[in-house]
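Deliverable D2.4 — example input (structure tokens):
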């Protein structure tokens, strides 16, 4: 036996007053779907939804408050989304729903309300509920299409080369991933990186290319560059190979630093700061080229770079801290490199399943 239909008299007046505005709200939604980021900043509609559900971080709240003070247009934009949110009564983390679930939610809301209101035409309320379902479907469709238009590339246990729709090229390091649109539409070309990747970007002043990794963004200014996200602590580093790169925090109002060839930018999560320095690691692209080169490199630094390249901890317990290594290795195994180090520096490599230790 099916569930009984609730008496519409039990619905609160304000709930149905909101439904009188459904056509206007739908027009707002269509406008937002066409241009969901109708401002010059990096404001994301997801951040507004975080604000509405009290899920935003302190940094995001500061950014949002500053954006709200910028102009009346920003405040009007927020108000429209806020009214759409109230009407749809959606939760930010519950976008994936189906029509039956939405109908059930409306039915439960009707049963929960105990306020008596005047008699109304039943046909009107059925139409109103149907309109609300259509609106919820539009919201769901917007987010579904938004993510359906993206492709996710993963490299697993090998280096992977990718050509993007604008002919820019990306090389993903092992165990990395890239989320990119099927087509670059709109005012920017934005991709999302996890792990490490090297980018050769086709420059377009009218449509900047941005790589988001963790809480930092690297923006192409006509260049090739390496981006690496440390998934353990959230730190992000960028090293420029050619051209220049703007590097800044997500939600930053201005470009923090401009990096030139052989310069390094780092976003330090613990201090929420972006710093600039000279790149002293000549092997930062060894994962892509297969070449390791050392020139008077201290043994501790050699061990660190070998650890990064081979993915196995290598450390030195050698007493002589003045030992340095000069040499080049191309596509050689860790075992062969260790033999060369042992012979050249007169040290011994102790190998275990967990790590490798160099001793006198």
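Example output (designed residues):
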């Amino acid at each position: 036996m099916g569930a009984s239909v609730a008496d519409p008299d039990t619905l609160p007046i304000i709930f149905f007053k909101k439904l009188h505005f459904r056509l206007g709200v739908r027009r707002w939604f269509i406008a937002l779907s066409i241009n969901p980021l109708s401002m010059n900043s990096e404001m994301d509609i997801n951040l507004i939804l975080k604000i509405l559900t009290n899920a935003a971080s302190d940094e995001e709240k500061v950014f949002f408050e500053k954006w709200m003070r910028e102009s009346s247009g920003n405040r009007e934009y927020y108000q429209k989304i806020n009214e759409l949110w109230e009407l749809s009564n959606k939760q930010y983390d519950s976008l994936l729903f189906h029509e039956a679930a939405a109908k059930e939610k409306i039915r439960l809301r009707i049963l929960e309300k105990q306020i008596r209101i005047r008699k109304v035409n039943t046909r009107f309320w059925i139409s109103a509920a149907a309109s609300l379902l259509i609106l919820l479907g539009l919201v769901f469709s917007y987010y579904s299409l938004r993510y359906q238009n993206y492709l996710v590339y993963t490299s697993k246990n090998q280096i992977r080369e990718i050509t993007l729709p604008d002919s820019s090229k990306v090389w993903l390091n092992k165990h990395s991933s890239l989320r990119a649109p099927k087509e670059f539409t709109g005012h920017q070309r934005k991709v999302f990186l996890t792990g490490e990747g090297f980018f050769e970007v086709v420059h377009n002043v009218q449509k900047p290319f941005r790589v988001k990794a963790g809480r930092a963004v690297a923006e192409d200014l006509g260049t090739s560059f390496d981006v690496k996200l440390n998934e353990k602590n959230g730190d992000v580093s960028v090293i420029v190979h050619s051209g220049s790169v703007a590097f800044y925090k997500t939600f930053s109002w201005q470009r923090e630093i401009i990096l030139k060839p052989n310069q390094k930018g780092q976003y330090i999560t613990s201090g929420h700061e972006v710093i600039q320095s000279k790149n002293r690691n000549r092997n930062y692209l060894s994962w892509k080229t297969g070449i390791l080169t050392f020139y008077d490199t201290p043994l501790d630094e050699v061990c660190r770079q070998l650890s990064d390249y081979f993915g196995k901890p290598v450390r030195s317990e050698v007493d002589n801290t003045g030992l340095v290594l000069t040499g080049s290795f191309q596509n050689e195994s860790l075992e062969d490199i260790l033999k060369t180090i042992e012979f050249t520096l007169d040290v011994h490599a102790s190998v275990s399943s967990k790590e490798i230790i160099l001793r006198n």
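The first helix runs from residue 13 to 19.
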